[in-house]
Amino acid sequence: MNIIGSVSRIIPDGSFPEVIEPMVDASDPNDKQLVDEAARLRDQLTRYNYNYYVLDDPLISDAEYDRLLRRLQQLESERPEIRTADSPTQRVGAPPLSQFAQVRHTVAMLSLDNVFDAAEFAEFDRRVRRKLQTNEDLEYACEPKLDGVAVSLIYQDGVLVCGATRGDGMTGEDITANVRTVASVPLRLRGNNLPELLTVRGEVYMPLHGFEKLNQHARAEGQKVFVNPRNAAAGSLRQLDSRITARRPLAMSAYGIGEVRGWQLPPTHVEILHALQDWGFALNGLVATATGVVQCEDYYAKVIACRGQLDYDIDGIVYKVNALALQEKLGFVARAPRWAIARKFPAQEAMTRLLDVEFQVGRTGAITPVARLEPVFVGGVTVSNATLHNHDEIQRLGIRLGDQVIVRRAGDVIPQIVRAAQSDGDTGNATRIIEFPKQCPVCGSDIERAEDEAVARCAGGLYCPAQRKEAIKHFASRRAMDIDGLGDRLVEQLVDNGLVNDPADLYSLTVEQLAGLERMAEKSAQNLLAALNASRVTTFPRFLYALGIREVGEVTAAALAEHFGTLEKLRKARIQDFVQVGGIKGVGTATAVALQDYLRSGVSPSEAQGEDLANWLTAARIRGITGKIARALATEFNTLEALRAARVDDMVYTHKSRIDGVGPVVAQHVVTFFQQKHNLEVVDKLCSSAGIHWPAGVSAKAVSQPLAGQTWVLTGTLQAMSREQAKQHLQSLGARVAGTVSSKTDVLVAGSDPGSKLAKATALNIAIFDEQKLMQMLDTYREQ
Ligand code: IVH
Fold it and tell me: How far apart are CA 636 and CA 634, in angstroms?
C-alpha cells in the first residue's frame, strides 16, 4: 500500500494542536490528589464510553456516567491546566469556529469504482486476476458500504489530534472539534504498542433510530427536516459550532488506514481492521471474508436479506482484495484503487402516483396527513402509504394529488415521499391541490396550529371520538393500566356505541353491556371486567403515564411521581416547581453571537427602548431574530444599552431542570393538563368512583424499571433458572421479552445450545449476554 509522506496541516502555524499534558506541581499533595482523581475519572469514563458505544454493552447507568462526567468537568474547570485533549469532557463540543481550516491528506482519500450486478462484479474479478496473472480464486474482504460521510482521523502517539473530511480527496476540512463529539470515535487509542502516527479512514453516519428522533423533534419545533440519514450526518459534521454536532446522534465505523508510522503492517486488510478494533474503533458487524465470486455473491445475498433490519443505511457492498501484497501489485487508476470495488444495491427509491391524502387524528389531536399511493415495489416491499408528517412538509414538497412522486424506503423507517418527480400540471394533466382541512375530519371541530408549532391539532379534545378512542387505547395499554382483553377494536366499538366517553367510564361497564357487542361472549365480558377490576390497584407512575399528558412518557411519569410524591402536589405545581428558566426562548449561541456582532458593528441607533427596540430589532433582519424573539428581547432588556451590555449567556435560552429529564415544554403540558376542567373531572372520577389507587409506601423508585423500553430475547438452555423465570425477572425490570430476534432487539441472552437466534443476532450486531452476564445484571439491580 502506498503509505508515504508526512502529515501537514494547513493551519496558521502549520502544526498540530499540542497534546496538553497536565502542568501541575506534583510535589503538592493536594495537587497530586486532584490530578490522580482526574486521571482516574478520565480512564473510567473512557472505558464506560467505549463499552456503551463501541461494544454496545453498558457497564453503568446513564445517571452514574453523568455523575462521574460532571465531577471531571468540575475538576477541570477548577484547574483548567489539567484538562487533556483526550478527556471525555471534550466530547461536549467547543466554542464555534468562524470557518474550517484546511487539511492536506498525506495519503489521498480515494473513491471506489462501482458495479451494479453480478456480471459486472465477475468482470471486475476477472480483470483483477488477469492483472495478477492467476487463475486461483481470490480472497476478498467484504464490508457493507455505509451511507454516511468519509472521515480521516489522525492519531499521534495514540491521541486524536485531527479529524478531516474527504474534500477533493487531497485536501479536506478540519472538523476535529466535531469528530471529537462522536461517541464511537476514540479520543485516545486503547492498548500498548501504538503506532507513532496513525491515520484512520472510516465513515461517520447517523443510525436510523437517531435520525427518526432528530427529524421528529425538528418537525415538532417547526424546523427543517433532513431528507435522509446521510444528509443529516453531513449537515451535522459541517457545523461550525461543535456543540450542535455533540447533540446529533452520530456514529463512526472504521474501514481502513492511511498513513502509519511506527507500526508493522499485517499481511491482510482484515487484520488491519482487527487492529483498529483492538485500538478501540467500532468495526461493522457484517465484515467478512469470501473466496471467489460465488462466495462473494452469497455474502451479497446475506447482507441484502438483513438490510431492512439494520439500524443504518447501506447502499452497497465493498469488496477489497484482502492481501496487502496483492493490493500493492494492483495499484490505482485515477482516483480509485484497482483492488476494490463497490457493488451498489438497487435503488431504495421508486416512482409512483399520489392518489389521495387522508388526514388521521392522533391521541393528542395531532393531524397527520397520510399519502395513499399507487402500490409500488421499493426496497424489498410493496408500499402503498407514506407519511407526509404535517402541513409544512406538504408545502415543502410542493406536491399535488395525481402527481408522480419519488418514494423512499430505508430500513425500518416509514416510507416517505422525497420529492415530486414531475407535476402533471406541467404536462397538461389535471392535478389537484392538497387542501389541508380546516375542520377535524372526525368530529368537525376547528383545527388549530399554535404559532411556534409545526403540528396542527383538532381542538375537539375528548369531544372528538378519534382522540377519545386513542386516549382510551393508551390508558388501557400494557405499560399504562395494563387492562388485559381491552384491544383496539373493542375500544372503538365502546366509543362508537356511546358506552364509554372517557377512561373512567370503563370502570362502570356491565356484563350485559359488553355481551351485546360484536365478538364478545359472556365469558370474555367477565374476563374483561375482572381485568378492569385488577387494574384498580396500580402505581402512581403508571397512572400518570396512563393519563396521556402530552410528552409525558414512562420515564418522565416516573420522574414526576418521584419528585412530587402525591397527585395532590403535582396538581398544584406551577412551572417554577419544575424548571428554572433563563434567557430568551428561541435564542441559541449562534443567534446571540450574531446579534452581538451586529450591535457592535456601529449600525444601530444610539438608543431605543421598549416597542421601538423590538421594531428596530425586527427590521434589522439579524440571523435568527424573529419578530417574536425581538419582542421577547425588548421585554427582557428594555433598552438598547442594556442589550448591548448583555453577555451571550444572558441571552441564550437555558433552563435548569429541577427534575431529571423534565424541561419547560413538559412542565407546560403538565400544568395545562391539570388546569383543564374536564381533565380534572376525569381524574377525580378515576380516583373516587372508579376506585383507582396506588398503595402507599410503594415509591416510584421501588417500581422503577431500568430496562423499560428495551426488548430482550432468550435462547438456549439456562442453568440457574428456567427461561420462563428469566423472562419474569426481565419483565419485572421493565423489559419486553420477545420470541424472535429483529433489529428492534436490544439484547439476546444465549444459554447453552443456542439456536439460529444467536446467528441472526450476531449478523445484526445485537448485544449478546451469556448466562453469567445476565445473572450479574440481575444481581446489580437486586442490590439497588
Ligand atoms: S473504502 C480506497 N470501505 O464509499 C478505498 N469506503 O466511493 C476507499 N464507504 O467515500 C474507500 N463504506 O466514504 C470503503 N466499507 C467501506 C465503505 C466506504 C462506505 C464510502 C467512503 C468513500 C465511498 C467510496
Answer: 5
Helices (runs of H) and strands (runs of E) counted in the chain: 29, 27
Give nearest CA residue, ligand 1 atom 16: 145
Express as a percent the part of the chain with pLDDT over 70.
92
701 is catalytic: no
- Report which protein residue has its CA nearest ligand 1's atom 17: 145
pLDDT higher than 50, residue 509 = yes
Instruction: Tell me which of 131, 145, 569, 677 is the catalytic residue.
Output: 145
Closest to 653 measured CA to CA, from 684, 682, 671, 629: 629
**What are the DSSP E strand ranges found in 641-762?**
654-657, 711-715, 736-738, 747-750
475 pLDDT above the threshold of 90: yes
User: Which protein residue has the closest C-alpha to ligand 1 atom 13?
Assistant: 150
pLDDT (0 to 100) of residue 555: 81
Query: Worst-scoring range by mean pLDDT, 111-120, 425-434, 537-546?
Result: 425-434
CA distance 101 to 260: 23
SS3 for 65-93 is HHHHHHHHHHHHHHCHHHCCCCCHHHHHC
Q: Please, what's the largest Cα pairwise distance for the chain?
A: 87
* Residue 282 to residue 145: CA distance in whole angstroms: 15
Residue 427 binned pLDDT confidence (cut-offs 50, 70, 90): low
User: What are the percentages of helix, strand and coil residues in the chain, rounded to 5?
Assistant: 40, 20, 40
Q: Which residues line ligand 1 (CB under 6 A)?
A: 110-112, 143, 145-146, 150, 166, 203, 255-256, 318, 337, 340
CA-wise closest residue to 456 among 369, 382, 578? 369
How far is residue 363 CA from its own chain's centroid?
Answer: 23
Amino acid at 123: E
pLDDT at 530 over 60: yes
Mutate to test the pocket of ligand 1, among 146, 269, 313 (most ligand atoms within 8 A of CB): 146
Cell 383543564 sits at which residue? 676
Beta strands in 194-287 (DSSP E): 197-205, 251-261
Identify which of 170, 255, 310 to mutate to test ligand 1's pocket (most ligand atoms within 8 A of the CB).
Answer: 255
Q: What is the pLDDT of residues 740-781, one digit of tens each?
A: 888 888 899 998 888 788 888 888 888 888 888 888 777 766
Buried/exposed 282-312: b ≥16 CB within 10 Å, e otherwise: bbbbbbbbbeebebbeebbebbeeebbbbbb
Say if CB 273 and CB 255 are below 8 A apart. yes
From 115, 145, 300, the mutation candidate for ligand 1 (largest count of ligand atoms within 8 A of CB) is 145
708 alpha carbon, distance to own chain's centre: 17
Q: How far apart are CA 509 and CA 521, in angstroms?
A: 15
Distance from the CA of 256 to the center of ligand 1, in angstroms? 9
The reported pLDDT for the residue numbered 630 is: 93
What does the pLDDT average to over 355-368?
94
Cell numbers standing for residue 470: 386513542
Q: Which of 693, 653, 709 is nearest to 478 (CA)?
A: 709
> What's the DSSP call for residue 441?
T
pLDDT at residue 32, rounded to an integer: 85
Q: Which range scores top for mean pLDDT: 56-65, 285-294, 591-600?
A: 285-294
